[in-house]
């Protein structure tokens, strides 16, 4: 069993999400332009300017400093109270530290000081690449496996309340589930049971993340890296298996042919005319292929004896 040092375990725990981000950036996958939240910020700025400007304009005749300060204060309060959320986003709102409601999409209200936004949860499909480096199979062979996880948040409340950082939790759970699934099968079964391995990892993850308000859509293994010292052995084993199959197939064909020859011999033994027809056919095929005069044994000439009586 492989034993890791405490320092290495600490380093992996701190670098887990960063490694996932780096792995996602290193994959040569086509990237599309991400959706923007600029409209949210534009709405907040516009609301601040409009409300604060109107309030300041109303008090401008009374006192200019009071109008400026009051306009800024009122603008900030209104901008922080009236907010909008994009179609794909849900907002978890707490009131005095307790869960109050889910806001969005569209316009939602937050009471300043009394209420606060705990989290903004994206409910679209999320793609998370992860890997299991040197995962041990049942026959103690270390493998490097890269996979992709497709998941989404269906309950923003549980995702915010039940787990501290649901993105990192999903990443770690996926890596652990992949190691557990690989540890149950042998090296020879990893490639042939890839789809079954995907489903097994998905089932393990669904059981873990169900209480977090997260659903796992699918798990897809991208690559399986076999140690270089075992690649030659596996290649020779595959070649030997193909050689064995070819020899078995050749033996079966020869067996079938020999059985047909035995049946033909039995027919020739029971009927002399059948043997004579076969002899004449062989002579015809020989003349057809080579052409001209063909020297044949005298036994072949007997096939033409009494041909008139044979044809009658």
**Count of folded domains:** 3
Looking at how many chains there are and whether they match, the oligomeric state comes to single chain
DSSP strand tally: 8
Residues in helices, as a percent range: 55-70%
| Text of the CATH class of the largest domain | Alpha Beta
Mean pLDDT rating: 78
- Structural class designation: alpha+beta
Strand content: 15-25%
How does this model look, in words?
The protein is α+β, with helices and mostly antiparallel strands and 312 residues long. The chain has three domains: 36-85 and 87-121, no CATH class; 126-226, 2-Layer Sandwich (Tetrahydropterin Synthase, Chain A), CATH 3.30.479.30; 271-312, no CATH class. It contains eleven helices and eight strands. It has helices at 6-26, 38-59, 64-81, 156-161, 166-182, 187-192, 194-209, 228-270, 272-290, 298-301, 307-311; strands spanning 82-85, 89-95, 98-103, 106-109, 115-122, 126-136, 142-153, 214-225. It has a three-stranded antiparallel sheet with strand order 3-2-5. The protein has a three-stranded antiparallel sheet with strand order 6-7-8. A hairpin with a 2-residue loop joins β2 (89-95) and β3 (98-103). α8 (228-270) packs across α9.
Keywords:
single chain, 312 residues, alpha+beta, Tetrahydropterin Synthase, Chain A, 3 domains, three-stranded antiparallel β-sheet, 11 helices, 8 strands, disordered N terminus
Brief rundown of the structure:
This protein is an alpha+beta fold.
